[in-house]
Amino acid sequence: MKKLIALLLCLMLAIPVFAMADDTVEITLWTYPIGSWGSAETVDGIIASFNAVHPGIKVTVQYLDYTSGDDQVTTAIEARTTPDIIMEGPERLVANWGAAGKMLDISDLWTDTRDDIIAASPAVEAACRNAEGKYFEYPLCMTTHCMVINYNDFEKADALQYIDETTHTWTTENFLKAIDALNAAGFLPTAVIYCGGQGGDQGTRALVTNLYSGQFTSADHSAYTMDTEENIKALTLLQSLVNEGKLEADPAIVAGDEIALFCNSTISMGFCWNASAAVSNKASLADDVKVFPMAFPSDDGIPELQGGIWGFGLFDNGNEARVAAAKTFVKFVCDDPSQAAASVYASGFFPTRASLGDIYAGTEKAENGDYAIFMPFLGDYYQVTPNWAAQRTEWWNLLQRIFAGGDVATEVATYCANANK
C-alpha cells in the first residue's frame, strides 16, 4: 500500500511538470515597415523558421506605419498594453521609449556579438545604448540614406560632367551647375523639396547639412544646431533656388510622393533614396528612368550621410517567461547561423554584423550590394538627441515657412527654440 501511495504521489507531482512543458508562451511583435518586414508573407516565413526550432513560442505580429504607428505605441504605453518586442531604430527605442523608462535593458544579448557589431560599425553600437551604458536596442540592419538622379536626363543635359561616377559624389558647386544644365535642357521641375510632413525627412536634413558641411546637432547630441552660419547659408541657397524656379518646394507632399515623381520621370533628382527604395520601386520606373544613386552634394566633396539602424527592443511588461521568449526570438532572428542573413535580406539593408559579409551577391537583390559604396560616408547618428519626435514636426514646419517666403534666420531661430525645449 505504501508503495502504491508513493507511486500515486509521484504521478501527481509529475502532472504539473508535463503540463508546463506543453504550455505555449505567447508573445507579440510590433514592427514598422522596414523593407519587407512590413510584409506579412515575409514575417510569417521568418516566424515559421523560428517555430521549427522553438515550437513552444507563439509570435503574434502587428504591423505599424509611420503615419499612425507612434500614436499606437503611445496609446499602448498609457494603457499598459505594449508588445513584448518592437522593431525600429534608436531614435524611438533608445532616445524616446528607452529614455522614458519603458524599455528593458537588454545588455545580456550583446555579450557574444558586441565585437562583431562594432567591427561592422562603431556608430551602431554607440547608438543602441544610453549614456549609462544600458542597451535598449539589439540591431539587425543598417544603411546610409542617399539621393538619386536620372542618369538619362543628366546625359541628355550634358550634366554627367558634374558628378564623379566612380565614387557617386559631387560638390555643391557642381550640384548647382548640374541644376543649371538640366534647366537649360528643359528638364523642369529638376527636383522637388518635399515638406508636407516628416516622411523621408532624413533626405531634406542631409541635403541642407551637406551643402556647406553643417552639423544638425551638437557633438554630444544635447541640442539642435540649425542656427549655425553653415546651415543658414544652405537654407538661404535652397530658398533662392526655389524663388528662381530652378527647384520646386511642395508643402503638400512627403518623400513617398517625391519618389513617385522621380520614378515616373516627372523630376530628374530625388532626395529620398536608399538600397531598399531601389528594390521596392523597381517595378514602377518609367522606361526613360535610369537610376543612379548619389551622395548628397557637399562643399568639400566629402559627404556625411545620415544612417538608418534598425533592430529590436523589449518593452518591460513584467512577465519573465515572455521576456525570455522574446529574447529567444530576437537572438534567433539576428544571430542564428541559418536565419540571420535572411532576416537582414528581408530589410533590403546591410548587416550590423561584420561576419555576415555581402548577403546580396548572386541574389535577385544583387544591386543592393552596390549601395555599400555609401557606407564609408556614414555620418553622426544624431537621431538620439532629446525631443527627437517633436523636432521632426518642427523641421518640416520650418521648411514650409522658409519656402513660403519667411526670413531664413528668423524661422531657424523659431525652429531651434521649439526643438530645444
Task: Describe the model.
With 421 residues, this protein is an alpha/beta fold. The protein folds into 2 domains: 22-143 and 308-373, D-Maltodextrin-Binding Protein, domain 2 (3-Layer(aba) Sandwich); 146-304 and 387-419, 3-Layer(aba) Sandwich (D-Maltodextrin-Binding Protein, domain 2), CATH 3.40.190.10. The chain contains 16 helices and 11 strands. The chain has helices at 2-22, 40-53, 69-79, 90-98, 114-120, 122-127, 151-156, 172-184, 201-211, 229-243, 255-263, 275-280, 320-335, 340-347, 388-403, 408-419; strands at 25-31, 57-63, 85-88, 138-144, 146-150, 192-194, 248-250, 269-273, 291-294, 307-314, 350-351. The protein has a 6-stranded mixed sheet with strand order 2-1-3-10-4-11, sandwiched between helices. Strands 8-5-9 form a 3-stranded antiparallel sheet. Strands 6-7 form a two-stranded parallel ribbon. Helix 13 (320-335) packs across helix 14 (340-347) and helix 15 (388-403) packs antiparallel against helix 16.
**Beta-strand content bin:** 5-15%
Mean pLDDT: 93
CATH class assignment of the largest domain? Alpha Beta
Count of helical stretches: 16
Radius of gyration: 24 Å
Main sheet specs: 6 strands, mixed
Give the CATH topology of the largest domain. Answer: D-Maltodextrin-Binding Protein, domain 2
Number of domains: 2
Decide which structural class fits the backbone.
Answer: alpha/beta
Strand order of the largest sheet: 2-1-3-10-4-11
* Number of E strands: 11
Distance between the termini: 78 Å
| CATH architecture verdict of the largest domain | 3-Layer(aba) Sandwich
Q: CATH H level of the largest domain: which superfamily?
A: Periplasmic binding protein-like II
Unreliable runs, pLDDT <50, ≥5 residues? 1-22
Tell me the helix content.
Answer: 40-55%
Shape: globular
Order of helices and strands: HEHEHEHHHEEHHEHHEHEHEEHHEHH
